[in-house]
Amino acid sequence: MVPLLIVLLLALVLFGAGFAVKFLWLVAAVLIVAWLLGFVVRPAGHGGRRGRWYRW
Which of 14, 53, 55, 56 is close enough to 38 for a disulfide, judged by CB 3.0 to 4.6 Å? Predict the structure, then answer.
């Protein structure tokens, strides 16, 4: 009984970790696309000239 519970718990943990890793890859892909779009679509800076789209 105990080995079955350990296997089920391990499967649940690995499934959760796999889902989290896939979700983080999706978030990273969205952030990279937004970052690359920031180089294409730059907002106007002070005085009408084109400025940096980031704050740092």
Answer: 53
Instruction: Say how far apart CA 54 and CA 37 lie, in whole Å.
Output: 12
- Eight-class DSSP state of 45: -
HSE (side-chain half, CA atoms, 13 Å) at 38? 11
Distance between terminal CA atoms of the chain? Answer: 57
Delimit the domains of the chain by residue range: 2-43
* Confidence (pTM): 0.56
For residue 41, give both structure tokens.
């679509």
Instruction: Check if the beta carbon of residue 45 is closer than 8 Å to that of residue 51.
Output: yes
Q: What is the pLDDT of residues 5-40, one digit of tens each?
A: 999 999 888 888 888 888 899 999 999 998 888 777
What is the rounded (10 degree) CA torsion for 15, 18, 23, 26? Answer: -140
